[in-house]
Amino acid sequence: MVEHLIQNPWWWLGLAVLLGIGEIVTPGVFLIWIALAAAITGGIAMLTGLPLALQFVIFAALCLGSVWVGRRWYVEHPVESQDPLLNDRIARMIGEVVIVAEPITHGRGRVRVGDSIWDCSGADTQAGVAVRITGAQGAILLVEPA
Length: 146
Fold this sequence. Notes:
This is NfeD-like C-terminal domain-containing protein. This protein has 146 residues and is of the alpha+beta class. It is built from 5 helices and 5 strands. The chain folds into 2 domains: 2-76, no CATH class; 89-145, CATH 2.40.50.140.
């Protein structure tokens, strides 16, 4: 009975539907491209009656090809974000005026950003003076007098 189910090409289409649902539940995971590969494999299996081992080879090749095509498509057609700096905390801070928490001496010091303290680099400045964030080198904020 189980062997008959495995030989039935309809399970490829069931897999495609499950992967499509997975893409809806967790968008942006490329499951839609693998679902496409499963659907095409199911169609080929229905039309040709290929053995199961060959179906898996075809599925693997189609997965690689469809994910490659999908990545290229996303590169050429990027999804526009309403907040492109959402996951770039430092980029969101550029232009913000902050207060020097520990004096900047020899180009190094610390500034208070919100409720946290960040290392910074800039011109020598006394504690309590306002400075503007102009960029970053790694996790070190670059500042200049405000």
